[in-house]
Amino acid sequence: MQTASPAQRKAPRPRADAQRNRERIVAAAREMFVEHGSDVPFDDIARRAGVGNATVYRNFPDRDALVREVVCSVMERTARAAEKALAENGDAFGALEHFVHTAADERISALCPMVSRTFDQHHPDLVAARERIERLVAVLMDRARKAGQLRPDVGVGDLMVAMGQLSRPPAGTPCFRVDRFVHRHLQLFLDGLRAPARSPLPGTAVTLEDLRRA
Description:
elongated
């Protein structure tokens, strides 16, 4: 007769209600981080999630753990959207557009700056989530470039910089008040990525390594 290994006994599957509570906490924290920043009190997050304070602390013993979970969950959903676009959209540039607009809806540009202020940028969970998105964006751009739809003089770094700048609200302005402008401005940028290019760009295509060294 087989018995469970020590590792299996130590990692029981979370109860359905416990998992739902964790998801509600993460969703509430995401909303409040976007609205008020990462310093929002845990008590306010608990009220928004409809759970007790003890439930928040039981799932997330400190602020770093909660911020990391929120950022990684947003990256995970954005990555899944990119994978879906690659699988379902026969229009290579259309798939790239879908990814950019989905990332904006996730408020990824409002959340990611928290990483440098709150916790280790090199945490394995964050690195894995970031690398997954970077690989998918590179594939999306490469496919559009090979289809002759994307101008050849832009890199993944160019796209990331523009997404961050165009979907981030001005200082002191809540994200939700500028939603109607974000997708308009992102589409203007995306139209500028289409081949053939109207004019040459100064400098060279920006890579992810360029951004990390900046």
